[in-house]
């Protein structure tokens, strides 16, 4: 009895695992250490509308355009990312796939290194980023077509009289068992079953019992093992129905051939181990809700994400894994119930959520709830995508970008950022349009540093940069060039305009009070300006001219403007 219960529990567990995996909105595949694509799940075939898994494996590199949106060769970038996953343990990035007809399939790829036998594989998970509603509409269309086709499937039919004689059949009965004619089916019916059924009962006795039950209760449905005359098994589902016939009743038998279904089940069982490996490596916490909003199952990733003891703790303490209120001010329990109900009603819903570990550590995820078939009804499968790494990465990238392009002292653009933007401006400059460079130097700034210290000097640099920025036009681009030097690129000017602008800058700085170290420090600047007259002149040549003009201004006593 214990073994039977264990088998039942195992079967139920496998069914739930299969349900959750088939509903996972991810295409999965496996790469070996030689970068060979060695396996995939059925979702990969479905996503790219292929014939079977083998076509996916054979034509994987046809499922990407030659170049990715960043300009890189798809083949080179794919190899690099797989190598990165083997080296680092995981890699996540966006990718442009396509179907064999060229239809784009923008995706998010997650590559995860997993242990396999005595080595490693890389499991790839492809999240389709196209509109889910469009996919659902297409799926519904396909489902309707399948239903129409299924409703028209012909069945083997026969009739039994009250003495359990097989008195008639249709042509499909002859076709199913590859017989000569209907009479052979009627004469040799009991040769079309083995002596014993899989449950150990005599076929003749069990058949009589089922026919009697149909006469007594009106209907009986059960599985049956048929066979052809050559012994080939034909697993079937039999439905017996009592019907009016002439002056009495007969039982009509409808035989549904289960060979294709059984073969599919056998194939599914064969793939279960690989599916389990791939499922365990899915970088998503998954759980299952019933129609009463009970959390009835989860995967191991749910336990890992929240650092729990086991799955039961996740199920028992699910509502402890969210704060009382969500960031929008709503009660977590109320909002969760509303989202689950919406998923049951509409088929799916996606939203951001604030989870937490039992120690209170925040876990911001994206939740996707999808209505799925479960046993005799429906359940809602929940998929939790941890956003902590994404949010941290975005924050880090923003900080890195600021450090890369901004001068730390003044807060304005640095030399690298200036040169990059100025080069682009030169390239995109319309023919005949003038551009000018101004080099600005703080006069005798070394004295400020020596007298008041470098901290005060930095305050003065920042203040002068602010004064210059306030005086310039919005279209002018100011940067710190180095030390106490600033540089400005000015577009769409002539010599008179650049001369007046430079003089305004000089006056604005010399007349402004700069307070630091509890004292007012006078500051003046020297400016060298050069205007591009030769359309072939390079940015570097124009900067060199402006620098020469600056040298000239300093040589003539500083606090002045010179132009070349």
From TrEMBL:
> Which keywords accompany this UniProt record?
Coiled coil, Nucleotidyltransferase, Transferase
- Give a Pfam family name: GGDEF
State any GO CC term. plasma membrane
Q: What reaction is this protein's catalytic activity?
A: 2 GTP = 3',3'-c-di-GMP + 2 diphosphate
Transmembrane domains' residue ranges:
none
- Keyword Translocase included in the entry's annotation: no
Give the EC number: 2.7.7.65
GO terms in the biological process aspect are: cell adhesion involved in single-species biofilm formation; negative regulation of bacterial-type flagellum-dependent cell motility
Keyword Iron carried by entry: no
Which top EC class is named for this enzyme in its record? transferase
Q: Which PROSITE patterns match?
A: GGDEF (PS50887)
GO MF annotations for this entry? diguanylate cyclase activity
- List, alphabetically, the InterPro entries matched: Diguanylate_Cyclase, GGDEF_dom, Nucleotide_cyclase, PAS, PAS-like_dom_sf, Rev_trsase/Diguanyl_cyclase
Which domain of life does this protein belong to? Bacteria
Show the CDD domains listed in the entry.
GGDEF
Q: Which stretches are annotated as coiled coil? A: 125-152, 254-281
Q: Which stretches make up the GGDEF domain?
A: 433-564
What is the protein name stated in its UniProt record?
diguanylate cyclase
């Amino acid at each position: 009895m214990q073994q039977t219960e264990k088998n039942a529990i195992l079967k139920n567990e496998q069914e739930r695992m299969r349900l959750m995996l088939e509903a996972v909105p991810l295409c999965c595949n496996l790469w070996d250490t030689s970068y060979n694509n060695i396996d995939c799940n059925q979702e990969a075939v479905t996503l790219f509308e292929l014939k079977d898994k083998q076509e996916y494996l054979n034509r994987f590199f046809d499922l990407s355009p030659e170049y990715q949106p960043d300009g890189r060769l798809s083949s080179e970038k794919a190899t690099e990312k797989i190598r990165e996953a083997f080296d680092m343990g995981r890699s996540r990035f966006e990718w442009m796939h396509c179907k064999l007809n060229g239809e784009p399939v923008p995706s998010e790829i997650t590559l995860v290194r997993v242990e396999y036998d005595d080595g490693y594989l890389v499991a790839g998970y492809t999240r389709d980023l196209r509109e889910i509603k469009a996919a659902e509409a297409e799926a519904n269309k396909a489902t309707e077509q399948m239903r129409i086709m299924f409703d028209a499937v012909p069945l083997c039919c026969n009739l039994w009289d009250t003495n359990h004689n097989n008195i008639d059949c249709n042509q499909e009965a002859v076709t199913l068992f590859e017989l000569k004619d209907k009479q052979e089916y009627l004469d040799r019916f009991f040769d079309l079953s083995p002596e014993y059924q899989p449950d150990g009962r005599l076929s003749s006795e069990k058949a009589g019992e089922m026919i009697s039950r149909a006469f007594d209760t009106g209907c009986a449905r059960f599985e049956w093992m048929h066979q052809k005359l050559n012994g080939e098994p034909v697993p079937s589902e039999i439905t017996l129905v009592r019907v009016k016939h002439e002056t009495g009743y007969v039982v009509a038998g409808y035989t549904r051939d289960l060979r294709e279904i059984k073969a599919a089940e056998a194939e599914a069982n064969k793939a279960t181990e690989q599916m389990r490996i791939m499922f365990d490596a899915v970088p998503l916490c998954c759980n299952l809700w019933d129609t009463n909003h009970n959390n009835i199952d989860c995967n191991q990733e749910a336990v890992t994400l929240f650092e729990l003891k086991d799955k039961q703790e996740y199920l028992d303490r699910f509502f402890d894994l969210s704060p009382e209120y969500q960031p929008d001010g709503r009660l977590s329990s109320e909002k969760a119930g509303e989202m689950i109900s919406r998923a049951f009603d509409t088929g799916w819903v996606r939203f951001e959520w604030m989870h937490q570990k039992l120690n209170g550590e925040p876990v911001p995820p994206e939740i996707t709830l999808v209505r799925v078939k479960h046993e005799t009804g429906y359940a809602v499968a929940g998929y939790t995508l941890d956003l902590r790494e994404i949010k941290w990465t975005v924050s880090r990238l923003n900080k890195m970008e600021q450090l890369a392009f901004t001068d730390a002292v003044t807060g304005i653009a640095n030399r690298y950022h200036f040169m990059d933007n100025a080069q682009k401006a030169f390239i995109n400059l319309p023919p005949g349009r003038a551009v000018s460079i101004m080099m600005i130097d703080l006069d005798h700034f070394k004295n400020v540093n020596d007298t008041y210290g470098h901290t005060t000097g930095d305050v003065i640099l920042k203040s002068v940069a602010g004064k210059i920025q306030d005086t310039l036009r919005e279209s002018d681009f100011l940067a710190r060039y180095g030390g106490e030097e600033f540089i400005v690129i000015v577009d769409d000017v002539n010599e008179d305009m650049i001369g007046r602008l430079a003089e305004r800058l000089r006056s604005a700085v010399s007349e402004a009070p700069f307070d630091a170290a509890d004292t007012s420090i006078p500051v003046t600047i020297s400016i060298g300006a050069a205007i591009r007259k030769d359309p072939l002149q390079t940015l570097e040549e124009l900067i060199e001219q402006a620098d020469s003009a600056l040298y000239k201004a300093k040589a003539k006593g500083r606090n002045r403007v010179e132009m070349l």
